[in-house]
Amino acid sequence: MQAPAPSRHAVTFVLITVLLDMVGFGLIMPVLPGLIEEVQGVGLADAAFIGGWMLFAFSIMQFAFSPLMGNLSDRFGRRPLLLLSIFGLFVDYLFSAFAPSVFWLFVGRVVAGLCGSSYVIANAYIADVTPPEGRAKAYGLMGAAFGVGFVLGPAIGGLLGEFGTRVPFFVAAGLAACNLVYGWFVLPETLAPEKRRAFEWRRANPFGTLAVFRRYSGVLPLCGVLFIYFFASSVYPAIWPFWGMAKFDWSVAMVGVSLAAFGLITAFFQGVLTGPLVARFGEYRVALFGLIIAVVSAAGYGLVGTLAGVLILLVIHGPEGFVHPMLTAMLSRAVPEDAQGELQGGLSSVMNIAMLLGTVVFSQIFGHFMQPDAIIQSPDVAMYVAAAVLVLALGLFVATARAHPQGQSRGVD
Question: What angle do CA 188, 110, 222 make, to 5 degrees?
């Protein structure tokens, strides 16, 4: 028995799911520093410490459970796991909206990490319905959905935050609930029963998944590049609102505007330029360019001294959005079709262990160098450290491509 062909509604739903996930995440980013200060009674530097540990709680749960969800989707199909992840986000936002203390904010983050596998399942869903040669473009559209979410979410969150720090959480919960109802009626299954495989616990834990990756040539080195890249790029979710408030005295609304601008730029690069650039230059060269831009941008944020300079850097920063979809597309072509869910679950674990370490490291660096008794008091040190780590990711990517040239897609010269 074949799984039904996915309708246009179903593919649209997957993109909308990613979009709404990022809208919900973006809604709360501008108000999170203020909410932590409100429930804990601390200043900005200490709120940054706590915010880093909250992101750690989210990422450690995703690291532990994303491979399980990805493997379960290879066994039982994409639909039930995707709907479950959306429900988990709905619960998280409600916990946060009603949280009377930091403890309950942490509970919400744990629930979101436990069920927050929508991106894992969405990637596997796209792999089910897209031929290998078209996946770079498809993942670019996924990235564009992320970018549009970052346009709408922070902009709306910054405005809603003016009415109270909890208002954006209620709105995010409502969006998740609407998406769950919509998906229940329009989302078909895309993984046919004959393409499913038996569930194995050893392949469903993050370390077992990494062991399985050794079977496929070039996968582990590229996973290493992703790990270092996500570790360094976690500097932005870890400290951006705190950095903007400390360096430029941004308001909640201004934090939202800055995040929205970055989302709009990222959506343009990923949604409009990914396909043509991959066709012309190939996945490797596009990813390489994105990594170079990532280094320049992180260092630039540390050096910039005006809002106008930040806006210019946001435009320059746009091509970094190519890195993740290019590497994901390269990796998806290196594993068989019945392991796409496992691959995406494993990549999510790599991403989340990197981000859980990175968010803690960069939030602690920011908080340390913002303390009154710090030897050097500056909000920019974390940005410089991130730039140095990104240089390492760039070097490993070049070395990996030379060692495994068969993994490159050259495009049309």
Answer: 70
What count of residues does the chain have?
A: 413
Give the residue from 119, 125, 124, 162 showing the smallest Cα distance to 24.
Answer: 119
**412 has pLDDT over 50:** no
Q: Which residues contact 85 (CB under 8 A, 6 or more apart)?
A: 69, 115, 116, 117, 118, 120, 121
User: What three-state secondary structure class fits 190?
Assistant: coil
143, 93, 138, 99: which is closest to 116 by C-alpha? 93
pLDDT tens digits for 126-182? 777 777 766 666 777 776 776 677 667 777 777 777 787 788 888 888 888 888 888
Q: Please, which residues have CB within 8 angstroms of residue 60's CB and are 6 or more apart in sequence?
A: 113, 352, 353, 356
Cα separation of 290 and 397, whole Å? 11
* Nearest Cα to Cα of residue 237 among 160, 153, 179: 153
378: helix, strand or coil = coil
The dihedral sign for the CA sequence 319, 320, 324, 330: positive
Across 96-105, 120-129, 203-212, which has the greatest mean pLDDT?
A: 96-105
The DSSP-derived string for 52-88 is HHHHHHHHHHHHHHHHHHHHHHHHH-HHHHHHHHHHH
Q: Write out pLDDT tens, residues 291-311.
A: 999 999 999 999 998 989 998
